[in-house]
Amino acid sequence: MKVSRHASDVRELDQTEREALELDRTDPLAAYRQRFHLPLGPDGAPAMYFCGHSLGLAPVGARAAVLDELDDWAALGVRAHFEGRHPWYSYHERFRDCGARLVGAVPGEVVMMNSLTVNLHLMLATFYRPTRDRYRILIEEGAFPSDAYAVQSHVVHRGYDPREALCVVAPRPGEHLLRTEDIEAALEADGRRIALVLLPGVHYLTGQCLDMARITAAARRHGCAAGFDLAHAAGNIAMRLHDWDVDFAVWCSYKYLNAGPGAVAGCFVHARHGQVKSLPRLAGWWGNDPRTRFDMRPEFVPREGADGWQLSNPPILALAPLAASLATFDEAGMDALRRKSERLTGYLERLLRQISTTSLEILTPSNPPDRGCQLSLRVRPDARAVVGALEAAGVVADFREPDVIRVAPVPLYNTFHEVWRFARLLSRCLGPRA
Ligand SMILES: Cc1ncc(COP(=O)(O)O)c(C=O)c1O
Prior knowledge:
Blueprint: H1 7-25, E1 48-49, H2 61-76, H3 80-83, H4 95-103, E2 110-112, H5 116-127, E3 136-140, H6 145-157, H7 162-165, E4 166-169, H8 180-190, E5 194-200, H9 212-221, E6 225-229, H10 241-244, E7 248-251, E8 266-269, H11 271-274, H12 316-332, H13 334-354, E9 360-362, E10 375-379, H14 383-392, E11 395-396, E12 398-400, E13 404-407, H15 416-430
Parallel strand pairs: 1-11, 3-4, 3-5, 5-6, 6-7
Antiparallel strand pairs: 2-8, 7-8, 9-10, 10-13, 12-13
Helix pairs in contact: 1-15, 2-12, 4-12, 5-6, 8-9, 13-15
This protein binds pyridoxal-5'-phosphate (PLP).
């Protein structure tokens, strides 16, 4: 597409470059950027990578973490299960505390295992327990397809018709965000028939952060279980899943958690369920009490906590980068990361509002608690072409049909100056104010 420069917009932005550089100079988390490999753009300089909502950058420490395990395998063979530097038999327990800190859980409520969708299936098998009167699942319109498919498949599996068994909440006509009061109203109207509420913590398309505490409380009032897909929330926003009394949650680790493509996912099961060994579940030997696992008994005795939902012995080579990544999260602290995130995304929003034309609309809520780091931009008439032009200029963002560009400034590795450069580029791509 033709990239035209609109002089007054660009002049306004030029004046703010010094401010961006100053914000970086005084950023207490600035040094963390060096802990990541920065992909290069077409000009050979580091790209402006705003795609952490899709795949986070590679931590520098990931390679050594994987090599350590490969070396232990080479040196010790099967003995590495117990004699390795990080014994594989209990490897997943490395995530017990740091995984819990990440989502506001108590140790034992979080286990890292499988992938997000697999964990969602495991949780649905336990928490979707339809009865004759209560069999519906409340989900949002336009849910991420994997969630929609998983939910539909469980409904069908239990002999219900998804057209009847799904209670779909949607934004009001002419709006694009969900209103908590509408979710509450749906529960008020139909709560007696709803078995389970499954919603995102942060919506993948709009970047909206839902009020998980309020939604969970409403679900509980009506006797429904409440679960959340935290794919876009984990490592992005601060949460208190335990205090909010959430029943379960699942998330992936390849986005804001920077643990690599297809990384091992997370699963939260509230302690009040983790203690109930009789809860129905899809079982595997790694969920069995480790003290008796190798007794090879036919009866399954689940380990207490989220660990009791594990199926298989964990993929150590895939978990190693997660260990490297979560160490960084622990060091920086989720609260400090969130503080920077609010400033960084707020800065991006402020710059975008300066250049706003009728061809640009910010879909993501403006109120910081109602969003994570991502801003979803509706760009018309041709968002795809704008993404192409941005890419050619060294920006990595992404396009979602039909007209949305998602941009995520990530506090661990993005800078205020990159945000400023992005805003200037976008203003050039969009042309004069309409
Ligand atoms: C909101 C959401 N849910 C589910 C998934 C599916 O995750 P996975 O492929 O790891 O199962 C994704 C993937 O991007 C996602 O963004």
